[in-house]
């Protein structure tokens, strides 16, 4: 009887863990699938470019040449700085971003690239 209840506890723990993991995986996957990933490019704190990364089919690059040069590569779902004339190269070393977790920031050139996903966030930015 004791052994049986112990097994039951273990069984329910396993079910619980599987359930939690499933929910997390589902949230992540559904987020990726429904996300309308948009990159916002700021220069001197001013929004200069809005790029819908979800709509990019062929990757392309363009240069922002203002206080300094930042060459940006735009891919489907991702954006990154591939070269820059700043001394720190932090913007280049950040690599490609496709989520809102980490922005690309080039402090010397006063450039910032952020990712927003979903129409609600976009509406907030537009308004
Ligand atoms: Zn930089």
Report what the structure shows.
By secondary structure, the protein is of the alpha+beta class. It folds into 2 domains: 1-34; 36-126, N-utilization substance G protein NusG, insert domain (mini-chromosome maintenance (MCM) complex, domain 2). It is built from 3 helices and 8 strands; from the N terminus they run H-E-E-E-E-E-H-E-E-E-H. The strands form 2 sheets. Strands 2-1-8-7 form a 4-stranded antiparallel beta sheet. It has a 4-stranded antiparallel beta sheet with strand order 3-4-5-6. A hairpin with a 2-residue loop joins strand 4 (69-75) and strand 5. The protein is elongated and about 75 Å long. The site of zinc ion has 9 residues, from helix 2.
Keywords:
127 residues, 2 domains, 35% strand, alpha+beta, 4-stranded antiparallel sheet, mini-chromosome maintenance (MCM) complex, domain 2
Give me the secondary-structure topology:
Elements: H1 2-34, E1 38-43, E2 46-52, E3 60-65, E4 69-75, E5 78-84, H2 90-93, E6 96-97, E7 104-106, E8 111-116, H3 119-126
Antiparallel strand pairs: 1-2, 1-8, 3-4, 4-5, 5-6, 7-8
The structure holds zinc ion.
Residues 84, 86, 88-91, 106, 108-109 line the site of zinc ion.
